[in-house]
Amino acid sequence: MFFSDKHAGMGELADTLAEDAYTEGRSLWRDARRRFMGHRAAVASLLVLVLLLLFSAFGQFLSPWDNESIDWASLPNLDEDGVPSLASQHYFGLDPIGRDLYQRTVQGSRISLMVGVLGALTAVVIGTLYGAISGYVGGRTDAIMMRTLEVLSAFPFMFLVIVLMAVFGRNVLLIFVAIGAVSWLNMARIVRGQTLSLKRKEYIEAAMSVGVHPLLIVLRHIVPNVLGVVIVYATLLVPEMILFESFISFLGLGVSEPYTSWGALISEGADAMWTAPWTLIFPMLMLVLTLFCFNFLGDGLRDALDPKDR
Amino acid sequence: MSEQQRLLAVENLQVTFDIMPRNAWPWTRPQPLKAVNNVSFTLNEGETLGIVGESGCGKSTLARAIMGMVPSQAGKVVWLGENLRGLSLKQLRKRRQRLQMVFQDPLASLSPRMTVGDIIAEPLRTHYPDIKGAELREKVDAIMDRVGLHPHQKNRYPHEFSGGQCQRVGIARALILEPKLIICDEPVSALDVSVQAQVINLLKNLQRDMGLSLIFIAHDLSVVKHISDRVMVLYLGNVAENATRAELFANPRHPYTQALMAAVPIPDPERERAKPPVELEGDLPSPMNPPSGCVFRTRCPLATEYCGKEIPVLEDKTGAGHWVACHYVEREEKLN
Ligand SMILES: Nc1ncnc2c1ncn2[C@@H]1O[C@H](COP(=O)(O)OP(=O)(O)OP(=O)(O)O)[C@@H](O)[C@H]1O
Ligand code: SF4
Ligand SMILES: [Mg+2]
Q: Rounded distance, CA B175 to CA B189, Å?
């Protein structure tokens, strides 16, 4: 088999990859950083995303309220007392049952961003390696790996989630497991397709003729060249994962009260949008902002990783 | 001449690709395509073998089969006394240290996301992981200098170079492991004529200085003329003729070689006009469905009925190493 020989163990592989950037600091990565810094929309987006991250991590300290207690004083007259206001320190107003929306948004951001980023990260790492290896090795291995993938994607996924919930109880961690399990499937397919076309390129043949270990060919020559596609798709995956989580939550299988997420907040807000529009507007703004930022970030990263882009 | 070391001997090598007919059912038998058929030749240390043939006659496939990058179905590839066919991938990768390749498309053979320094260093890193840092850099600089590149260009990416420079990078990569043999698969076909000469001269000098052997693949004779010791002419996966350069150009025997010679313009109008009018007619037959008997017979001006029945064997017609595969080339008594 292709990977059975012990010439390069994993530790050695890692060393070799780290050594790649020996030439006086000009490496793909350093260059990429320089080009990325030139991409203003991407840099601004990155900044906004960092702020969002800080907001979700430390935003709760800016308000005296918390995310589960009900503001009994304002409850009788929500339409007027629940309006966002600095005076009452309900910056985002109150939700339909009188809880502080600001605190709930902070806490929801934490869950949603984590779900989105972790889902996309799993997809990138597992999907890219799985797809690249399957496409590169080809033949029977490819057939087996792809059939496995098809079986996994044909699996009734909600069923899996429900079974997991039934066995382990309702648990935020399970959402991550579930999302991790599906997010990489499409990524693997995309990367495999790209790899199949790259495999015929002469530089892959050149690496073979030099005697490079097949796993290193995948890591050094295939992966960097599919990275552009991978990154764009990953940035599209982040919002998709966030929406996916809200779908699970909507069915009552995801986060449970008092915890919430953007998806859950938006669906609550949509019900109350005629009487209390702010319950929809704030979480939605967050989601839209994130979506935009990830798109620009993706464009910037793709361009940055292409040396032909000056 | 003193006894030179035998570097490579290819014996009756055969490469067949299984081609699925279009719109075929999954259970239809794939059709065999004989890309390389019964090819034999030998190569000594320090020698250059030119391989010539039309596009699609199996030159690249032959090169890949020698390297072990496509599976071959029969025959032997004896490298330094050891048959490479049947070795595991791991064993092959080790042998490739002394057996390198230069490719046809200079830019496409360089990884677009690696600096040329990294590209040139890759073979060293692969086979000598202990060479690092300053020592590695020194070796890369030295080899870049040797092939006519400025070492300070090593931080650039391939697309920032011209075709000729890219090919120099490719040569540097092949050279850095100090191989015994470099297989150059049409290394100059993609280059401008003026640059072609530079690259060929570079290869020639390197060969002289480092005692390299070369297999130099080209699709016309004029390129091969300047660099080869021996020339082998391929037609549809078969060897038509194999002789020393002087013999072949002075005395081409196979009708196909003669036709190829006729296609090479002579830079003298008198002699150009006086050339024998041997012209190739028709197209290259499909290798999926080669003619019976002699594969060249559909285009051969001398073909007879007999040529369609018997396959001509490759024979040393003079006893002095002039191999020809044609029924109608007379056997000659060995001079002296
Ligand atoms: N991987 C492959 N699968 C199927 N057929 C192939 C494959 N590689 C080559 N062939 C076929 O084998 C024959 C010889 O191809 P090859 O590339 O060796 O020709 P070539 O002499 O190098 O031509 P060129 O001068 O155009 O490079 C062709 O008919 C080609 O279609
Ligand atoms: S064997 Fe016949 S067909 Fe073939 S080259 Fe000789 S004369 Fe022509
Ligand atoms: Mg070729």
A: 20
Q: Which residue of chain B has the CA closest to A307?
A: B113
Strand partners, B10: B41, B77
- Least trusted range by pLDDT, from A250-259, A274-283, B45-54, B207-216: A250-259
For residues B196-222, one letter each, b for 16 or more C-beta atoms within 10 angstroms of the residue's C-beta and e for the rest, the string is bebbbebbeebbeeeebbbbbbbbebe
Pocket test for ligand 2, best of B310, B324, B327, B331 (most atoms within 8 A of CB): B327
Q: Which of A1, A22, A309 to mutate to test the interface with B (most CBs of B within 10 A)?
A: A22
Helix axes A139-154, A172-199, angle to 10 degrees: 150
β pairing state of B31-44 and B6-19: antiparallel
Ligand 1 pocket mutation pick from B22, B61, B184, B217 by most atoms within 8 angstroms of CB: B61
- Distance (Å, rounded) from C-alpha B46 to C-alpha B114? 32
CB-nearest partner of A206 from B103, B137, B159:
B103
Task: Using a pLDDT cut of 90, give the percent of chain A over it.
Answer: 22
CB B122 within 8 A of CB B175: no
Domain assignment of residue B284, yes or no: yes
pLDDT at B220: 84
CATH says A51-63+103-309 is which class?
Answer: mainly alpha
Cis geometry, peptide bond prior to residue A258 (ω within 30 degrees of 0): yes
Instruction: Quote the Cα angle for B310-B312-B313, to 5°.
Output: 130
The strand pair at B323-324 and B82-83 is best described as unpaired
Model pLDDT for residues A177-187, shown as the tens digit of each residue: 778 788 889 89
Confidence of residue A134 (pLDDT cuts 50, 70, 90): very high
Task: Quote the CA–CA distance of A309 and B83 in Å, as a whole number.
Answer: 46
pLDDT in tens, B224-272: 888 899 999 999 999 999 999 998 998 898 999 988 888 766 666 666 6
Which residues fall inside 5 Å of ion ligand 3, going by CB?
B 60
Residue of B96, B104, B129 lying closest to A210 (CB–CB) = B96
- B39 part of a folded domain: no
pLDDT at A3 (0 to 100): 42
- More confident: A73 or B117: B117
What distance in Å separates the CA atoms of residue B51 and residue B248, rounded to the nearest whole number? 12
- Find out whether the beta carbon of B326 lies less than 6 Å from any atom of ligand 2: yes
Residues of B numbered 122-141 whose beta carbons fall under 8 angstroms of chain A's beta carbons: which are they? 122-123, 125-127, 129, 132-133, 136-137
Residue B84 within a domain: no
In a domain, B309, yes or no: yes
- Residues B49, B224: contact at Cβ < 8 Å? no
Map out the domains of chain A as residue ranges.
51-63+103-309
ipTM: 0.83
**Rounded to the nearest 10 degrees, what angle do helices A40-58 and A278-304 cross at?**
130
Q: What average pLDDT does this structure show over A188-206? A: 92
Structural domains of chain B, count: 1
**Whole-number average pLDDT of chain A:** 81
Range of the domain at B319: 257-336
Mean pLDDT comparison of A5-19, A160-174, B68-82, highest-scoring range = B68-82
